[in-house]
Amino acid sequence: xxxxxxxxxxxxxxxxxxxxxxxxxxxxxxxxxxxxxxxxxxxxxxxxxxxxxxxxxxxxxxxxxxxxxxxxxxxxxxxxxxxxxxxxxxxxxxxxxxxxxxxxxxxxxxxxxxxxxxxxxxxxxxxxxxxxxxxxxxxxxxxxxxxxxxxxxxxxxxxxxxxxxxxxxxxxxxxxxxxxxxxxxxxxxxxxxxxxxxxxxxxxxxxxxxxxxxxxxxxxxxxxxxxxxxxxxxxxxxxxxxxxxxxxxxxxxxxxxxxxxxxxxxxxxxxxxxxxxxxxxxxxxxxxxxxxxxxxxxxxxxxxxxxxxxxxxxxxxxxxxxxxxxxxxxxxxxxxxxxxxx
Length: 342
Description:
single chain, 342 residues, alpha/beta, Enolase-like, domain 1, TIM Barrel, eight-stranded parallel sheet, three-stranded antiparallel sheet, 15 strands, 22% strand, globular
């Protein structure tokens, strides 16, 4: 049974310029893929390229076109398809491979008439609450963003600047909600160690990627000094095989489909992290609800979620998993359960 592939551009605009320690932008180009079987049933996926990992819209689209001839003859051969894609396009192609993985899983669920989480045997009631991300900004804009995040019970604050204390103080003065902090690899070891007591003073409940991805010994020192404040790595951990060397150096990992390359790899990462006694977080890029929903389906397996990528946009073209008062609600429709908005 031959599968066909259709590729379209999907443009997203954020409500505010999204600023982290590495830069700022407002407009995003995403790739929407549709895998179509002979009966016309479609599986959907989204590619969310990151320049940090050497990808952009054009390179992702070219990779997907290169992988199109290698779609599996048997749409249920998800493991074989993933291995094939990784062999054909092994480097700087995670976003493209993740889109095809999501599309094949969506088709799998639709052919079987069940949502993905049910095929994995998961309990949707165990999905955690998602945080809402507050990007770097002026004090006035920070106040506006905190007000806009009123429906979210947990905030994630971007740091990694020379004014981190002021940013944290501004947000804490506005709310008593739990706060998580992401330095996006923007601190030195000395800066991170100085920030730890300040984070604790402001009731921060999680610290993400304090140091450069390759500085694992420094990360180990931060983790040891942080005590009961969990330190989770993001850029330091791309795939499951990265996790053993992180054990004992960080408390947990952050999984993103756009960097690990497939839903099956994400599940492997959960299993390996658990085997090493680590906590697990799932994160996202700036994505539509198509990309967010693919990640949301395995959230019953994780401790923390930061799946607000679609909530940060003003023109999300899809509807899927919802975040109701911060709580992730998984679709009950087959496959991913994503629809195109009218």
